[in-house]
Amino acid sequence: MLEGMKVLDLSRALAGPYCTMLLGDMGAEVIKIERPGKGDDSRSWGPPFIEGESAYFLSVNRNKKSITLNLKSEKGKEILFKLIKISDVLIETNRPGVMGKLGLSFEEIKKVNPKIVYCSISGFGQTGPYRLRPGFDQVIQGMGGLMSITGEENRPPIKVGVAITDVGAGMYAAIGILAALLRRDKTGEGEYIDVSMLDGTISWLTYQSGRYFASGEVPKPMGSGHPLIVPYQSFRTKDIHINIAAGNDSLWRKFCETIKLNMADDPRFSTNAKRVENREELVKILNDVLSEKTGKEWLEILNKAGIPCGPIYKINDIFSDPHVLSREMVSEIEHPKAGKIKVTGVPIKFKNNPGKIRLHPPLLGENNFEILEEIGYTKEEIEKFREEGVI
User: Fold this and answer.
1) DSSP states of 138-193 as a string?
2) Cβ neighbours of residue 341 under 8 Å, at least 6 residues apart?
3) Quick one: 335 and 302 in the same domain?
4) How far apart are CA 298 and CA 238, in angstroms?
5) Does 130 lie in the same domain as 12?
6) HEC states along 363-383?
7) What residues are annotated to the active site?
8) Residues 64, 28 share a domain
């Protein structure tokens, strides 16, 4: 879908690389600009490592080429500006103001390429009193409200088990970039995009913020439960917990019929509002009934009846599930150092122009010669750049 688009990726760690991985999956040529000798921070994050390659880095950097550039050197900037002239998108994740000090602000870049779509991803955005604070997922999950509504009441704060605020910022950045490219096709003008991890996290609060705005009630953590729908949580069976999501009154009636619970018309539970009001009493009743059979038995019964339900998978369970495998959400690719490695599949499925994994996560500076020769440098010049620490 994005074949022919050239993306310069000056980001590191997770939010920016996740964004550029999505663009690469959809066909864009992504050139990852890395620091000579060190590269992306995540290259050193581990263990685990596979033949010296960080599993973290490998997980979010497929479909990219790597070039090393010292952007504090004049020759390094000269090379970058040659790349900018022929690129469509630039992504960076530095603290606000850093790109300006390097002479790489949007205002400077658009003088070289007025059609460039320039995206900055940061923890708190380019404006506001917190703009210069470092943005880390742990901090953003707390300040964005997620940790106040995750876990169990009267227990210590709990965060989501992946760096979800980074991933979310990367997704919002990709959405913004695609919108800006669509507009550029109509106007010929580039755009500057300011994506904040905190903004994105707050936007996810949706019905939780709606509850607060409507009632003044401050939402609390509820374990696996839902504040506005019952039954909609995990339940204990004879051997394991399973998820059940009877999300409306008709499903509630069908659920009662399926588990042979004669309570569909009980005035305490006949409507969702009543079930929310009498949540504690109902959950106890359901746990008692569901504990009579194993999780596997209940899942077979409930799925056959069309009741929304599912197991609570561990990571190893996910990647052996036949549906996940049929959707090609596990891919095996060849890496020049790590050998055959597994990565998650492409999540966006296009019918006519499907995304695919074309390139392994690159070695540091793997594509220096290829990229520099494409923009006119000779092998001798490139070797000299290496000797001088430019690349």
Assistant:
1) HHHHHHTTGGGSSS-TTS-----SS-HHHHHHHHHHHHHHHHHHHHHHHH---EEE
2) 50, 58, 332, 333, 334, 335, 360
3) no
4) 10
5) yes
6) CCCCCHHHHHHHCCCCHHHHH
7) 166
8) yes
The residue count of the chain comes to 391
User: What does pTM read for this prediction?
Assistant: 0.93
How many angstroms separate the CA atoms of 74 and 365, rounded? 19
Residue 384, domain extent:
6-203+324-388
Summarize pLDDT for 158-167 with one digit per residue, the tens.
999 999 999 9
Helices (H) then strands (E): counts for the chain: 17, 13
For residues 254 and 198, state if they share a domain: no
* Helix (H), strand (E) at residue 19: helix 15-25
Q: Do 111 and 181 sit in the same domain of this protein? A: yes
| Angle in degrees, 0-180, between the axes of helices 379-388 and 74-85, rounded to the nearest 10 | 130
- Shared domain check, 275 and 377: no
248 closest CA partner among 271, 266, 279, 264: 271
pLDDT per position as a tens digit, 121-159 = 999 999 999 999 999 999 999 999 999 999 999 999 999
Residue written as tokens 């590191």? 12
pLDDT in tens, 75-98: 999 999 999 999 999 999 999 999
Buried b (16+ CB within 10 A) or exposed e, 3-22: eebbbbbbbbbbbbbbbbbb
| DSSP annotation string for 100-153 | HHTT-SHHHHHHH-TT-EEEEEESS-SSSTTTTS---HHHHHHHTTGGGSSS-T
Q: Are 70 and 35 in contact (CB under 8 A)?
A: yes
59 lies in the same domain as 190: yes
Q: Do residues 290 and 231 make contact, with C-beta atoms less than 8 angstroms apart?
A: no
- For the record, the structure tokens of 52 come out as 């010296």
Nearest C-alpha neighbor of 140 from the set 195, 221, 210: 195
Query: What total number of domains does the chain contain?
Result: 2
- Please spell the DSSP secondary structure of 61-81, one letter per residue: --S-EEEE--TTSHHHHHHHH
Q: Which residue has the tokens 């009934």?
A: 289
The Cα-based distances of 219 to 85, 102, 160, 227, 281 in angstroms read 49, 44, 17, 8, 20
SS3 330: strand
37: which 2 tokens? 């000798």
- Rounded Cα–Cα distance for residues 391 and 389 (Å): 5
Could you tell me if 285 and 230 are in contact, meaning their C-beta atoms sit under 8 angstroms apart?
no
